[in-house]
Amino acid sequence: MEEFEEELPKGEREMSFLEHLEELRWHIIRSLLSILVFAVAAFFFREFIWHHIILAPSRADFWTYKFFCRLGTFTGAMVFV
């Protein structure tokens, strides 16, 4: 059975089940804190996010509309209105 045991890097040891649970708990806490920080930031910038990111493609001055209009003009495509 010893042939399957791997050597750990120097300074590291095997963790018990409870130590793994403790590590998991701290990962979850840090994840939730970062989600909370970004949610608060998104709340404060909600007008910018809503108007310039979410609804931006619905405006005629959106960059993809401008790009495709220029591309159509460049390639000589007909405009049907």
Structural class: mainly alpha
| Tally of DSSP β-strands | 0
Major sheet summary line:
none
Mean pLDDT: 85
CA-CA gap between termini: 77 Å
The amount of beta strand, in percent, is under 5%
**Annotation field: number of helices:** 3
Shape: elongated
Helix content: 55-70%
Number of domains: 1
Report on this structure.
The chain is elongated, with a radius of gyration of 27 Å. It contains three helices and no strands. The protein has one domain. The protein has 81 residues and is mainly alpha-helical. It starts with 16 loop residues before the first helix and ends in a 6-residue tail after the last helix.
Descriptive key words:
mainly alpha, 0% strand, 62% helix, elongated, 3 helices, 81 residues
Summarize the structure.
The chain is mostly helical and 81 residues long. It has helices spanning 17-44, 46-54, 63-75.
Q: Secondary structure elements and their pairing?
A:
Blueprint: H1 17-44, H2 46-54, H3 63-75
